[in-house]
Amino acid sequence: MESLKGRSLLALIDCTPEEIRFLLDLSHQVKKEQRQGLRQQRFLGRSLAMLFEKRSTRTRAAFETAFGEEGGHPVFLSSADIQLGAKETVEDTARVLGGMFDIIEFRGFRHETVEKLAAHAGVPVINGLTDRWHPTQALADLMTIEEHAGTPAGIRSVYIGDGRNNVSSSLLVAGAALGLDHHVICPQELSPSPDLLEVVARRSDYPGTVTVHHDPRAIPRDASVVYTDVWVSMGEEENSAERIDMLRPYQVTEELMGTAPKAIFMHCLPAVRGNEMTAGVIDGPTSRVWDQAENRKHTIKAVMLAGLGLA
Ligand code: CP
Ligand code: NVA
């Protein structure tokens, strides 16, 4: 898609619904190709810098395998190894890496860092999670919803837990862009930012709706999706005891899932059994978390193909 060529992906709020639709269609296609055993070399001769200030299993593995298996050269650069933020400014690092790599992934603390990288690298920068957004996660979430719950337009989805974190915000935006009837259930203190809710409500190109509730029993009976995330995100460990107390009433239990009998359970992972959900839920019959994790790879491959102008 011409409009995505050479573009960074920092947050899905920067994309049109058509661009998100294109990335999802491409994700389904690359998954199908992989299932058919079709091996391609679309990244041959290209290089990917993978910058990580925080730990990762899925995001790192997804970028590295998606790029490497198609002939590309991914290079993992953790903040323990490189000068970024220690002896060198973000702008200088961006210029240097932009001169050597075709595309850059960044996972880190401050969203401003990925914005600076994108402004100075001269090559596409993909946000692999910051304190504000996790756009590639939301693409995998929507892909999984399409596989297991149906076309997003009109589907009722629930996110329950920390309503203002990166995963909640990204799902809220992607869902609104594709027409979900999305419900965020969270303590008042952990509500999505009013600014974000306003921006989403004002987007005339977003067919979906977002409703915020504070009663943990507010799950609509006909919900097709119940989604949660960790109660304490990376970098927020300082207040973890208080946060856990606040979120305890929002735990996803078998009983809670029983109030939405057709809902699938989703979680971006990593998960803490006994906190945001019981083991019976994540390991039970409604859970789709392993497909969701695999879809990280297909969606990330699609984002890189589009950003490099290869699709
Ligand atoms: N969901 C997700 O981003 O997982 P990782 O932290 O393992 O990358
Ligand atoms: N909200 C979580 C997501 C982890 C994939 C965090 O930022 O730690």
How does this structure look, described?
The protein has 2 domains: 2-134 and 296-307, Rossmann fold, CATH 3.40.50; 136-292, Aspartate/ornithine carbamoyltransferase (Rossmann fold), CATH 3.40.50.1370. The termini are close together. 49% of the residues are buried. The chain is α/β, with parallel strands linked by helices. The model has no long low-confidence stretch (mean pLDDT 97). The protein has helices at residues 17-35, 58-68, 90-100, 111-121, 135-148, 166-178, 194-202, 240-247, 254-258, 279-282, 289-307; strands at 47-52, 73-78, 103-107, 125-127, 156-160, 181-185, 209-213, 225-228, 264-267. Strand 5 (156-160), helix 6 and strand 6 (181-185) form a beta-alpha-beta unit. The longest helix has 19 residues, at 17-35. Bound molecules: phosphoric acid mono(formamide)ester (CP) and norvaline. Norvaline is lined by residues 129, 165-167, 229-230, 233-234, 268. Residues 56-59, 129, 137, 268-270 line the site of phosphoric acid mono(formamide)ester (CP).
Concise summary:
By secondary structure, this protein is an alpha/beta fold. The chain has 11 helices and 9 strands.
Keywords:
Rossmann fold, single chain, binds norvaline, alpha/beta, 2 domains, binds phosphoric acid mono(formamide)ester, five-stranded parallel sheet, 311 residues
